[in-house]
Amino acid sequence: MVEQVKGTQNITDDASSKYLFIRNLFTEMFVNYGYSYLQTPHLEYTELFEKSIGKNSEIVSKQMYQFTDKGGRSLVLRPEGTSSIVRYHSQYQKELTKQYAYFGQMFRYENPQKNRYREFTQGGVEIVGNIDEYSDYQVINDSIRFLNKLDLDFVLEINTIGSIEDREAYSASLVKYFEINESKLSTESREKLSNNTLRILDSNNPADLPVINDAPEITEFINTASMDKYENLKKLLTNNQIKFKENTRLVRGLDYYNDLTFEFVNNDGLVLGGGGRYDKLAEILNIGSFNGVGVAFGIERIMNSISPKNYSPYIYLIGSSIDKISKYSQFLDEKDLSYYKPPRLSKINTQFKYAKNLNVKYVINTDEDTIKDLENNTSVNFEIGVLIENK
Question: Which domains, ranges and CATH numbers included, belong to the chain?
Answer without folding.
Answer: 13-162+222-303 (3.30.930.10), 173-216 (no CATH), 315-389 (3.40.50.800)
